């Protein structure tokens, strides 16, 4: 096992470590021993032969990853499987999968017996740089993304970079969408780093933000950079566009909108597109989706406050990135019209 990097997430009532590197999954037995766990439910879409031995009695709960399975029905299925496995509040759930598995299983862990320990083994780049860290768990409704959820911090996160070796190109792109937007929220330009260093930098930034604002009362809003339009694109395309791809377009849009509002200069606007393009990410809107549809979906975004007062975005500006309410819908529609349209990135 090569050197594994550790990032500590320090919260008021709960601390945990994120381990990043080749072979990080092999730390699972030691982590569970330290937690004093008697048995676990190992929830994953992977075949059992590819799952790490947790070192304690375990039950494998099979899942299907993907946004279409990120539902309350899936949460109920997992919780019933936990009952069948005999899990008590002294036990734990291990979520091994992508971002949708992390979110959905995390919510199930938060609700089962009013909360049991969860350890995340994220297997995609998106999950490693974002979804597995920070304690946000949620599922989708037909009306929008992540509308039902809870804050439930993991007890540990093991980001084994070996999982990334066989990821399809579009899965890697989805993770790069989150890495690209980090340039505008405090991580700096990560393009010159190798992938492990990009993951560590992204997680380190997120850990510092979450430590200051665990429950989105202020500074944590910056982590939603590019996500207001991004979530709308996902929903409007019935998730044919991946999360990170949509966030990449949302990041370009955030730069254009901030420029139109006079919050940033022309060079900073251009930097948004340059960084997103350098990762091979899309900078265009999905074809066939009316701007009015995207505006309506953005109006439902969970960051929105008084919907009669306009839209709410996280935008760059002279004081740095901050939450900006009251953006006129006509202006947002005009900025959307400045973006070209096209198909989703091609699959492998």
Automatic annotation (TrEMBL):
Signal peptide, first to last residue: none
Names of the cofactor(s): NAD(+)
Gene3D superfamilies attached to this UniProt entry: 3.40.50.1970, Dehydroquinate synthase-like - alpha domain (1.20.1090.10)
Keyword NAD: yes
InterPro entries per UniProt: Dehydroquinate_synthase, DHQS/DOIS_N, DHQS_C
Pfam families attached to this UniProt entry: DHQ_synthase (PF01761), DHQS_C (PF24621)
Domain (3-dehydroquinate synthase N-terminal): residue spans on this chain: 62-172
Keywords: Amino-acid biosynthesis, Aromatic amino acid biosynthesis, Lyase, NAD
Occurrences of domain 3-dehydroquinate synthase C-terminal (ranges): 194-303
Superkingdom per UniProt: Bacteria
PANTHER family: 3-DEHYDROQUINATE SYNTHASE, 3-DEHYDROQUINATE SYNTHASE, CHLOROPLASTIC
Listed name of the protein: 3-dehydroquinate synthase
Species this chain originates from: Streptomyces asoensis
Lineage: Bacteria, Bacillati, Actinomycetota, Actinomycetes, Kitasatosporales
Gene name, Swiss-Prot/TrEMBL: rifG
